[in-house]
Amino acid sequence: MGRIWRSVKLGIKSLLLHKLRSSLTILGVVFGVAAVIMMLAVGEGAARDAQEQIAQLGATNIIYRSVKPSQDAQSQKTGGRPSRVLNYGLKYEDYDRILATVPTITKALPIREIRREVRNGPHSLEARVVGTTHDYLEFNRLTIERGRFLLPSDNEHYENYCVLAAETARTLFPFENPLRQSVKIGSDYYTVVGVTKPRGSTAAIGGSLAAQEYDKDVYIPLNTCRVRFGERILSSRAGSQEAEETQLSQITLQVAKIEEVPLTAPVIEGAVKPFHEEKKDVDMVVPYDLLEQAKRQAAIFSLVLGSIAAISLIVGGIGIMNIMLATVTERTREIGIRRALGAKRRDITQQFLIETVVLSGIGGMIGVGIGVFVPPLITQFSEIKAVVTPESVILSFGVSVLVGIVAGLYPANRAAKMDPIEALRHE
Amino acid sequence: MTVMDDFPLMDDRPGSSGAQPIVRLRDIRKQYIMGKAGGRHEAIVVHALRGVSVDFYPGEYVAIMGASGSGKSTMLNLLGCLDRPTSGKYLLGDQDVANLSDDELSEIRSRYIGFIFQAYNLIQQYTVWENIQLPLTYQGSGTITAEDDARTSELAEMVGLAERLDHRPNQLSGGQQQRVAIARSLVNDPYIILADEATGNLDSATSAEIMAMLERLNQAGKTIIMVTHEDDIAEHARRVIRMRDGQIISDAPSERMKDAPPDVVGLGLGTGLPGAALAPV
Q1: A57 in a domain, yes or no?
Q2: How far is B264 from chain A (nearest CA, A)?
Q3: Using a CB-CB distance cutoff of 8 angstroms, which residues of chain A are in contact with residue B103?
Q4: How many domains does chain A divide into?
Q5: Chief subcellular site (chain A) (predicted)?
Q6: Full domain range(s) for residue B111
Q7: What's the pLDDT tens digit per position in A225-248?
Q8: Contact A89, A282 (CB under 8 A)
Q9: Which domain holds residue A35?
Q10: CA B98, CA B78: separation in Å to the nearest integer?
């Protein structure tokens, strides 16, 4: 160990003999290593973003959503003219059928969403009214700020209770405690029983699932929703009246373990799809699949970015090799002297290898420093999220040292193969 | 059966009675092939040494002389284990080194040979101290012990450079650099010191200084073999070997030793201990 350390110290001395040359060589490695770390950090940041969003949907969940059929699908069905009442989406019977046929489901959450104006005296907002059950809280990782969430009994008794999301509560009750107050949703009054804490919105994923904002919601019991709002919704659009008939907007299903997801999803599909084959008015979203897909994409993304950066590292390595070849020629006489004084071939190889590894190692360390320091700045000053992982640091530093060894091997061997007598005579 | 059996002692030399030669060369031949055979060119075979047999005893101070092309450099390279003879035997101490591998020859150089070159050949980026210790790093484990450090200081003191241990070669005069080289050649306590035109790059005053230092070393018992083409430098030696066309043409005590008793010229002197023999001189 002492010997290696001594060789490293003496190697540094030799490198200091040509300060500019050595620092330029090091610079090549610095850029390579820093580029690899930063590129991987950007890749990792993007991957984490996507995965976080998907994970928020719940990896053990399987989501079925009602989808408004396209104009094409509608015309086909009715023979060229859109029907006046558009009947589509998930039905209560779908919900019951799923629960009856799929045993691995531990929890199921039916959801009906309607956009309605919610009003408290002068304060009002266009809210998403969600008719659902008590499980909604857990499924969507919401937490209660005040009061309580909907209870199973609320649903059973068709109570006119509602729970307000954070922003809804703030808009409707800017100065008061909303609990036990009443708000007007549509044409009925509901008593506020609870307020949820703010929660970030989920982003749209792959077009199959729209972005969800939770903070402008109002939650009411599903049964209440069913009787108060009915299934048919009228809306005026472009001068003509349009009616839609939907029973459920979404069914979220949960299995016990993540491993059961890939097995359960096809079974559920089998229970729902045949009944919606024609209209294509439902869509299944499996966050687990998306997660896997996102991971694969992230891996490819990182690989592409990393490879691009690795090229610069290789260029740095070629720089090292070039310089070491020049150095070996230039120091032929020194090699001869060392051989005369008893250096074996492997001592010479070792000396030059140590010098190249010191070069690439120093470059690697500086590169790691820059690579670790810069991504947080990128995150701070731009929209791009960059996350430096320990693996990327170890990888890039390791590769830089490896590049040093590979680049040093040929020059070092050439130095070692020199005939001592010829080498001594050189100059 | 040892390798020694191949080397009957040459007891006809004056003063060699009983002493073991430290170096024995037997019918050493060396030929180089210049250029490549084939096409219109024929390979040229250069016979650098054509059967050289010679012994060197502990404590000797020998000058090898000859014109360029006489084979003296080849001889020095072979003696220094930098090269292997094409044929013949070379016994260093009691080890046959003529057919050793490259690594083994390196090991021999690092332990038993000290080199002093015409161009000093110090490592430019190393300090005086590091230059002196260089041969030690190539010995065995390559670790430098406290004992080695003490010896380094002692040698630096001896060559008068104790004050300049952290100087680089380019901060030293030629004479000083050659003194560093001398200290370096002694650090491994070699069997023989090989000096190749050690004063060739120095002015006469500095040359004298270096030669005086070699003289002192020899008096302290070191075996020195030097190659030179200058008669007055060769005169510092006790024995002069002249070469021509790869052969030894004369091997005799130097002028200043002509009148000395033969046992002083030949050295060895029966004790086998370098240096001990020289005490009365």
Answers
A1: no
A2: 31
A3: 344-346
A4: 2
A5: membrane
A6: 59-87+101-266
A7: 988 888 877 766 566 667 788 888
A8: yes
A9: 2-52+294-425
A10: 9
